[in-house]
Design a protein that fits this description.
Helix 1 links the parallel strand 1 and strand 2. About 35% of the residues are buried. The N and C termini lie far apart (about 50 Å). The chain is about 45% helix and about 15% strand. The longest helix has 16 residues. The chain is built from six helices and five strands, in the order βαβαβαβαβαα. The protein binds 5-O-phosphono-beta-D-ribofuranose.
């Protein structure tokens, strides 16, 4: 089995309900992905091994979702040159502000492309991954263009009374 272009990684099983939104969009766009649980704190060796080998394995882009002290996206950015798209998980205690700040405030030199908190961020992470792949994959480019056109066409020009 060839390595799919997208790695969809998350800090915990509890993040899957959010990251599933990324998976749904990737499926809609016909983009293969591999999902994995990698915790920066609970499975640091797994993070290290994945970060070190992701590029040579053949992945092109990594979507990384984590919540709370969300160090997974940033630590992966420190171990691989692949683009990392971070998804801050919406937490119960701080509504995901903790996740957002943990992911977005990277030190100069090691960026993470940080999405919105929660499911919208997960959807946009998949679309951002598709945009990156579209720079060299014409099939993805055409599918993404069609997806965007369909979304535009679905927006009514005038509001209706509910
Ligand atoms: C983070 O801790 C995970 O990304 C998750 O969002 C959060 C809570 O994990 P669980 O306690 O639900 O496993 O590492």
């Amino acid at each position: 089995m060839p390595t799919p272009p997208v790695a969809l990684v998350m800090g915990s099983q509890s993040d899957w309900s959010t990251l599933k939104r990324s998976a749904d969009i990737l499926k809609e766009l016909g983009i293969a992905y591999q999902s994995k649980i990698i915790s920066a704190h609970r499975t640091p060796d797994r993070l290290w091994n994945f970060g070190t080998s992701a590029e040579t394995q053949g992945f092109k882009v990594i979507i990384a979702g984590a919540g709370g002290a969300a160090h997974l996206p940033g630590m992966l950015a420190s171990k691989t040159r692949l683009p990392i798209i971070g998804v801050p998980i919406q937490t119960q205690t701080l509504s995901g502000i903790d996740s957002l700040y943990s992911i977005v405030q990277m030190p100069r030199g090691y960026p993470v492309a940080t999405m919105a908190i929660g499911e919208t961020g997960a959807v946009n992470a998949a679309l951002m991954a598709a945009s990156i792949l579209a720079t060299f994959d014409t099939t993805v480019a055409e599918t993404l263009s069609a997806w965007r056109t369909e979304l535009s066409n679905s927006i009514p020009e005038h509001p209706i009374d509910s």
